[in-house]
Design a protein that fits this description.
By secondary structure, the protein is of the alpha/beta class. Strands 2-3-1-4-5 form a 5-stranded parallel sheet, with helices on both faces. Helix content is 47%, strand content 15%. The chain has a single domain (3-173), classed as Rossmann fold, CATH 3.40.50. The protein has 8 helices and 5 strands; from the N terminus they run αβαβααβαβααβα. The protein has helices at 3-6, 21-34, 44-50, 59-78, 92-101, 114-120, 125-130, 161-176; strands at 10-14, 39-43, 82-86, 105-111, 152-155.
Length: 178
């Protein structure tokens, strides 16, 4: 790809709740902006609360969430904005549809074991799900289909945010001449 294509990159961060997607996304976002790139981040939690409260957590709604995020990412990327999408996006098929639609799609598996995610969970979501207060919670009573061949895998239980973020930035420089 040419350097002009790099401006249209869509970086899709997928992983369990509390794996570090948003924190990692913010690191990459800030690094890109510091280097003079136009970049934005779409955080799945924020977008759900502010743009589409109509979606719940069924498989159909989760797939629709990914479809809508894909459309937003496509619009931003078409306008030269590097877009970071941070969303659990638990189903492989939905992420593959995003990959097909977005010509500069980069899948980043933000990988942390479930027990680590539960220890990090400041919102108490896992505890609530295990107590029966939340049904269909990814990783507890709903599946998470990990990427089989992500473009980058960040082991946030073993790497610092800086180490993981630099892996993403190195991929962008290597593959998209960023």
């Amino acid at each position: 790809m040419t350097s002009s294509d790099a401006a249209a990159a869509v970086i899709w961060l997928t992983g369990l709740s509390s794996a570090g997607k948003s924190t990692l996304g913010e690191y990459v976002l800030n690094s890109l902006r510091i280097s003079g790139r136009k970049a934005e981040m779409l955080d799945g939690d924020v977008v759900r609360l502010q743009l589409w409260k109509d979606l719940l957590f069924s498989k159909k709604d989760r797939d629709e969430n990914v479809r809508r995020l894909t459309i937003l990412g496509e619009l931003l990327a078409r306008n030269g904005i590097i877009t970071i999408i941070s969303a659990i996006s638990p189903y492989r098929a939905a992420r593959e549809e995003a990959r097909k639609r977005l010509p500069t799609f980069m899948e980043v598996y933000v990988n942390a074991p479930l027990d680590v995610c539960e220890r990090r969970d400041i919102k108490g979501l896992y505890r609530n799900a295990r107590a029966g207060g939340i049904h269909g919670f990814t990783g507890v009573d709903a599946p998470y289909e990990a990427p089989l061949q992500p473009d980058v895998e960040c082991r946030t239980d073993l790497e610092s945010i800086e180490e993981s973020g630099e892996k993403i930035l190195r991929y962008l420089r290597t593959h998209w001449s960023l």
